[in-house]
Specification:
The complex is a heterodimer of chains A (78) and B (371).
Chain A: E1 23-31, E2 36-40, E3 46-50, E4 61-65, E5 68-73
Antiparallel strand pairs in A: 1-2, 1-4, 2-3, 4-5
Chain B: H1 10-23, E1 30-36, H2 37-45, E2 56-63, H3 65-68, H4 71-81, E3 86-90, H5 104-109, E4 113-116, H6 120-129, E5 134-141, H7 146-159, E6 164-170, H8 174-182, E7 190-193, H9 195-201, H10 208-213, E8 217-219, H11 224-240, E9 245-247, H12 259-268, E10 269-271, E11 274-277, E12 281-284, E13 288-290, H13 299-303, H14 318-322, H15 354-362
Parallel strand pairs in B: 1-2, 1-7, 3-4, 3-5, 5-6, 7-8, 8-9
Antiparallel strand pairs in B: 10-13, 11-12
Helix pairs in contact in B: 1-11, 2-15, 7-12
Classes of the chains: A mainly beta (78), B alpha/beta (371).
């Protein structure tokens, strides 16, 4: 499906579901009341991310899958 | 890219390949299964199998949710998508998975309102923006994706979004692994465990593999050095006579997983008594459905689905590929009748499917030199 990547694909043409994909994103701001955070990936693309499953803090990094942060990451995560 | 380059270092890769060569016993054949479609993709994309000795064989597992969904479930989805007034949402890779009468893309071409979404939350947003329409999300994925669906359903329930519902096709990783280990036609020496599934479920659920079946498991990341190191760790265990679950991906995967994710999944989902896996047949307690508390949001209950079991096309050998019994290129229709552009089988649809990954990256270099 590399010829026509859909929204669930990352830049490399992966499917986020089948690839068990996780994207490292930096947390820019947290909306604790709504359980959401504005995050940015390594390419500078921003997205609103569900953070109910992690303790996200502004300036930290999270692993995002299908719009949801599933883990917080240390300094050396990839 | 930040932090990534060091996991793609060619020099370190060659050093790991040397360690692997020094670890294996000449004359013994090793079969190692990478469970996850993401690992399959990395292996072909980076040519990892070309760095391995000839007696170390990688077997591609069933860890691509698209590849294991049976045709009958696609037909159920299409039946819902073609209902008047419905907006049907799914991940992009589902769009081209063939059912018995075409794909979701075909249904869209015939007039159904089928939309690709990046996350279940996007589907919920569409529901809020279209209160006069029924919005159905076709949920698919292993434990990595299930928490996202669960949180979305919790939001929908809390916010009273009455026009949103979900077809739940989430599957769990342990039962198919057990089925593979019970399979008489497949002998495996070890497993590369799924990295991000383990972020959610932790390492503990894989303990049965060494305990009950005497096979090592190494949970691994997705960069080429991650995969190479995981293979080296599996072979090291075998050489040392050890058998345990090791975590190569400690920078991301905590041993206990994500407890909040497991809690929300336990609230929203319950195990189905059985579920059909393409190529593996019906496996007990291998998939999730919505719990009674969320029955109102279950599209299968709200609208009803045909629920008819459809046999796979006769020419398709996805089942044998999924079980690792044959390699992608050994399928009768690989690369001829079945290509990524015109897929017959699901393994060719998803880029993480063994056939598509091999078609895109590996088919030109099958004849590798014996190391």
């Amino acid at each position: 499906m590399s010829d026509a990547p859909g929204p669930c694909f990352d830049l490399a043409g992966h499917c986020i579901t089948c690839g068990d994909e996780g994207v490292e994103m930096r947390v820019l701001g947290v909306d604790a009341a709504r359980g959401l955070a504005l995050c940015e990936d390594a390419q500078g693309k921003r997205a609103t991310v569900e953070i109910a499953l992690v303790d996200a803090v502004a300036g930290g990094s999270v692993l995002v899958h299908a719009g949801t942060a599933i883990a917080t990451l240390g300094e050396r995560a990839a | 890219m930040r932090f990534v380059d060091e996991f793609r270092d060619a020099e370190l890769g060659r050093a790991l390949a040397g360690q692997i060569l020094a670890t294996v016993e000449p004359g013994r054949h090793y079969k190692v299964m990478e469970v996850c479609g993401g690992h399959t993709h990395s292996i072909y994309k980076y040519g990892i199998d070309d760095l391995l000795p000839a007696n170390v064989e990688l077997v591609h597992g069933p860890g691509c949710p698209v590849c294991v969904i049976p045709m009958g479930r696609v037909d159920d989805g299409i039946a819902l998508a073609t209902r008047p007034g419905v907006i049907f949402t799914c991940f992009g890779d589902m769009m081209r998975v063939p059912g018995s009468e075409g794909t979701f893309l075909d249904a869209k071409a015939r007039g159904a309102d089928v939309r690709m979404v990046y996350s279940p939350l996007d589907a919920l947003r569409i529901a809020k923006e279209n209160p006069e329409r029924e919005v159905i999300f076709f949920a698919i994925g292993f434990e990595t994706t299930a928490p996202s669906t669960a949180l979305t359903l919790k939001r929908a329930k809390a916010e009273g979004v009455a026009n949103f519902s979900c077809v739940c096709n989430h599957v769990t990783i342990v039962p198919p692994l057990r089925a593979l280990l019970e399979s008489p036609d497949l002998r495996l020496d070890g497993f590369i465990g799924p990295g991000h599934v383990s972020t959610v479920v932790g390492a503990r659920p894989f303990g049965f593999i060494p305990a009950d079946y005497g096979r090592p498991v190494v949970i691994a990341g997705f960069e080429p050095l991650d995969v190479l190191q995981a293979i080296q760790m599996i072979l090291r265990q075998i050489a040392d006579g050890r058998c345990e679950v090791e975590n190569q991906y400690r920078r991301v995967v905590p041993y206990e997983g994500n407890l909040r994710a497991l809690e929300v999944m336990a609230e929203v989902f319950e195990l189905r008594p059985h579920f059909e896996w393409r190529g593996l047949g019906f496996i007990s307690q291998s998939a999730l459905r919505l719990s009674d508390a969320y029955a109102d949001l279950d599209a299968e209950q709200r609208f009803g689905v045909p629920g008819v079991r459809i046999a796979d096309p006769k020419a398709c050998q996805c089942g044998e590929v999924l079980k690792g019994v044959i390699k992608p290129w050994e399928c009768k229709v690989f690369g001829t009748a079945c290509t990524p552009e015109h897929a017959i089988g699901t393994c060719m649809v998803s880029p993480e499917g063994a056939c598509a990954a091999y078609y895109n990256y590996g088919r030109f270099a099958r004849e590798r030199e014996v190391v």
